[in-house]
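Repro:
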Amino acid sequence: MTTRADVTRLSTAQRRLVTLAQNELTGYFATFDLTRPEAVRDALLEIVPLLVREYGALASIAAAEWYEQIRPGSGFNARLAPPVAAEVVQGSTRALAGVLFTDDPAAVLGGLAGAVQRHITYSGRTTIALNSMRDPLRPRFGRVPSGARTCAWCAMLASRGFTYATRVTAGEIDHFHDDCDCQIVSLFDADAAHIEGYDPRQLFDRYAQALAAADSGDPKVIAAYMRRMFPDEFTDGVHEHDI
């Protein structure tokens, strides 16, 4: 059975690669002349996709190795998911590069670091989801938060628990924000419903209460209600005195 230690090992490996990529990006950025925003933007449009491709490939390898290690039995060779398309990375880079033309051009680095994290971890998450789909053992997989607490949005999406992998559920891997610590985790034990630190039933209870109170099917509205109804349970909880 997949354990919390397994999830921690996966999360640590992915986070280590992201940190290496972000440090490399910071090193490049330190050499830029921010008084020439057009030149910096053009350099970033080349550098960021290369970093995502390099470290995204390593994230896929780490995820594939992790999958083979937790999978019972032998004879299954995990495949690597393709990296995020360069055009996609360039698109997010170009959108963020607008900050270069403001009074605080250095602020673009924070946004780029978040985008790099999201694109790199996408490769690892997709690798696990795709192998769950093609594995003859037919494991379920779920979105599992890594930290002690997570944000309301991630809690809402994680509340569905472990489901069988299909192309539809695999498509939900796109629903991650920058700096999200959630992992896609495979579960081979048919009788298991949760792992230590992740109880989808409790998360679903919070979601159901917020859904009823919101009287809306809009996920953003529901997440907003979760933040206000259970502020101490989420990293982005909102207390009455904060409003």
